[in-house]
Amino acid sequence: MMTEKQSNFITRAIFGILFVVVMVGSFTRPDFMVGLFAIITGLTIWEYTGLVNSIKGVSVNRLISTIAGIYFFLAVAGIELGMVRGFVIFVPYILCVVYLLVAELYLKNENPIHSWAYTMLGQMYITLPLSLINILAFGSGDSEAMAEPNMLLPLSIFILLWTNDTGAYCTGSLFGKHKLFPRISPGKSWEGSIGGGVLSLIVAGLIGYWANNNGEVQSLNIPVWIGLGLVVVVFGTWGDLVESLFKRTIGVKDSGKILPGHGGMLDRFDSSLLAIPAAVVYIYTLSQF
């Protein structure tokens, strides 16, 4: 008969594999990717607003915030795919934001400033970073939408994040002695972070080698891929720490329970919330030279 620990491990492994399969499968077609990440954006904002609404004096409109986030994601996707043009596509989103601000005049909440702050934080911390994955897939720093999507680029961000996490866990478990950030995340060590980072750089180089020898559209050269790996490792680690600080601040261990054995949506995508914007800035900056 299995122990509870063994049962939890099996559950975690099964849902971990399913998660990876769904994520990788979504990058086989642009419409799959856009659809999945629109759902991810909505679920993550819904989870976030539920967490902050548990804070005394905070009241965030979950429904409007979630709808606004999904709309913004789809608007960016539409522009990058060349389906829509012009700033007018963002008018409904702007109206949602204005409504969320003006509504506090009439709701008589205990501390409207806190409600405003947490409302805008959700849009900046979750909606904007996840929406930028469309830039990686369909824009890659160009001023106009790409003629052909580059699905390897956004997929590689997650491959590098998963590699970093796996390498950090294995190396940290074996050699970890010096705490990376004990105040926020006591389980992380410098040894683990370095091990995960080195493994990610190796994988980034291998991805670059494969891409440059298999005719991938607008492929980066190998040194640029390795640089991307470094960016993802550094900002992905910071993203993980930022979410840990957020959870410690509001007093929760996991952000949710939507993924058995893996916590909530924020727990799964925390690293990407800083890694994606950093990757976009990195690639855009290189495209200017």
From TrEMBL:
The keyword Zinc does not apply. Its EC number is 2.7.7.41. It comes from the Bacteria. One of its GO terms (cellular component) is plasma membrane. It is a multi-pass membrane protein. Pfam families: CTP_transf_1. This is Phosphatidate cytidylyltransferase.
